[in-house]
């Protein structure tokens, strides 16, 4: 992959999420009461609902989201590092409600694609003309032997934040750990939500330990032999944390095959048992249960979609965005969820008008914090292709390597700007 564009260019791409290039022609008066239903109030769903309401005011927009406040996965790792508090990453839906979006805090229990109806846990049934489905992921409890819902109270995953309780649990465990303890990470094979996320988490936990428990160690056991921004992360670990972080790839028996919560042990493929003081299991994942239960997922566990419209290949009036869909080679990221949600809405409106989806290009900028005032990034641009999504050749890249303290400081600032911009774009 080529070197990244200048930071100015990357920041320009980031700010492009606010002013989407998608054309937004008004629906005709006859179609003005079309019903757009959005399930999921995260990066994909909230972005879709707000974009639909502001760009197509004739639409009736309803958002179904069980939680009254949304805790973001992005920046959750900074909570573990001690540089953010839970309130800093928690967002309410008041801005969406003020924009005229009907918000129902309930669970979607089932989708009848033929009748275009969604059944809610509370008993209400909603009809739609177009459905934007962005429910995120489900943890595949049991896919890693020994790891179930009870085990998550010992070895938190903190990968589906919900109300933030899992992330807060992991933070409390780190605070209670004695200096000189071992923090273990179990990292899954691809695909999973936020490919650089585990390595940013390692970095932020290392930053906390360096300040408060400097004799401690981090053991990162990985089911892969390579990961996103690997050289940049490892450069940062060495420069900032010395030998605190040990990363063990799959080829060196890094794949965790079983966990034992009672003994607080990670056991690898070839039988080595690692005793831990704190363990973070990032388990295998799939599309959320509403996708699986409604027959919208392929055998891979992820939804297959049209790369121009995000219409489900199983139900064309359902557009699936965010982490639940198979967008490879696009990563499962908040940025991708945000801008593909807008394309899905524009495509849904075009279909209601009897038109083709608009031309599409999808941007991703993923920032990661490695330490205080130390940020890195990866940029990618993608388009629909004949067989799915394709990365535009020579369109992106990663931060340059080397001793570049000002570069790292500026990227940390750009990361903060990105987070403020995208959450404002989602929630108003």
Tell me what the CATH architecture of the largest domain is.
3-Layer(bba) Sandwich
Strand order of the largest sheet: 5-2-1-9-19
Total of DSSP H or I helical runs spanning 4+ residues: 10
Which class best fits the helix and strand makeup?
alpha/beta
Give the domain tally.
2
* Helical percentage: 25-40%
Please report the total strand number as a whole number: 23
Tell me the span between the first and last alpha carbons: 35 Å
Rg, alpha carbons: 21 Å
GO molecular function, one term: oxidoreductase activity
Pfam family, one: FCSD-flav_bind
Domain Sulfide dehydrogenase [flavocytochrome c] flavoprotein chain central: 167-283
Signal peptide: 1-24
Summarize the structure in words:
It contains ten helices and 23 strands. The protein has helices spanning 7-15, 43-55, 76-81, 94-98, 165-176, 197-212, 230-241, 289-293, 334-352, 405-427, and strands spanning 35-39, 60-64, 69-71, 90-92, 102-104, 108-112, 117-120, 125-127, 130-133, 137-139, 182-187, 217-222, 245-248, 256-260, 265-268, 273-275, 278-281, 285-287, 318-320, 362-371, 374-385, 388-391, 397-398. The chain has a five-stranded parallel β-sheet with strand order 5-2-1-9-19, with helices on one face. It has a four-stranded parallel β-sheet with strand order 13-12-11-17. Strands 20, 21, 22 and 23 form a four-stranded antiparallel β-sheet that branches. The longest helix is centred in the last third of the chain and has 23 residues, at 405-427. The two termini are 35 Å apart.
């Amino acid at each position: 992959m080529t070197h990244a564009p200048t930071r100015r260019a990357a920041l320009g791409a980031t700010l492009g999420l606010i002013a989407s290039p998608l054309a937004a022609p008004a629906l005709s008066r006859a179609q003005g009461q079309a019903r757009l239903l959005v399930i999921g109030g995260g990066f994909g769903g909230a972005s879709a609902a707000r974009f639909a309401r502001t760009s197509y005011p004739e639409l009736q927009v309803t958002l179904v989201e069980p939680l009254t406040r949304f805790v973001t996965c992005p920046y959750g790792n900074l909570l573990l590092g001690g540089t953010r508090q839970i309130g800093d990453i928690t967002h309410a839906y008041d801005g969406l409600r003020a924009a005229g979006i009907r918000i129902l805090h309930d669970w979607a229990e089932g989708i009848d694609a033929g009748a275009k109806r969604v059944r809610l846990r509370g008993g209400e049934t909603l009809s739609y003309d177009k459905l934007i489905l962005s429910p995120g992921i489900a943890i595949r409890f049991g896919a890693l032997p020994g790891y179930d819902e009870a085990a998550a109270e010992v070895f938190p995953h903190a990968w589906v934040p919900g109300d933030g309780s899992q992330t807060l649990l992991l933070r409390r465990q780190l605070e209670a750990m004695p200096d000189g303890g071992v923090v273990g990470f179990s990292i899954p094979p691809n695909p999973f939500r936020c490919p650089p996320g585990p390595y940013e988490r390692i970095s932020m936990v290392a930053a906390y330990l360096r300040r408060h428990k400097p004799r401690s160690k981090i053991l990162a056991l990985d089911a892969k032999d390579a990961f996103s921004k690997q050289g940049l992360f490892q450069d940062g670990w060495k420069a900032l944390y010395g030998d605190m972080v040990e990363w063990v790839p799959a080829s060196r028996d890094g794949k965790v095959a079983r966990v034992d919560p009672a003994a607080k042990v990670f056991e690898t493929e070839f039988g080595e048992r690692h005793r831990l003081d704190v363990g973070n299991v990032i388990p295998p994942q799939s599309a959320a249960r509403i996708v699986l239960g409604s027959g919208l997922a392929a055998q891979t566990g992820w939804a297959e979609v049209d790369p121009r419209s995000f219409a489900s290949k199983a139900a064309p009036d359902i557009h699936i965005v965010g982490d639940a869909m198979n967008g490879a080679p696009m990563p499962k990221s908040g940025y991708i969820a945000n801008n593909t949600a807008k394309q899905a809405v524009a495509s849904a409106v075009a279909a209601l008008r009897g038109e083709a989806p608009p031309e599409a290009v999808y941007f991703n900028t993923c920032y990661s914090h490695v330490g205080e005032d130390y940020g890195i990034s990866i940029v990618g641009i993608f388009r629909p292709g004949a067989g799915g999504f394709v990365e535009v050749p020579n369109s992106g890249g990663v931060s340059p390597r080397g001793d570049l303290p000002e570069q790292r400081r500026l990227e940390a600032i750009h990361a903060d700007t990105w987070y403020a911009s995208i959450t404002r774009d989602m929630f108003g």
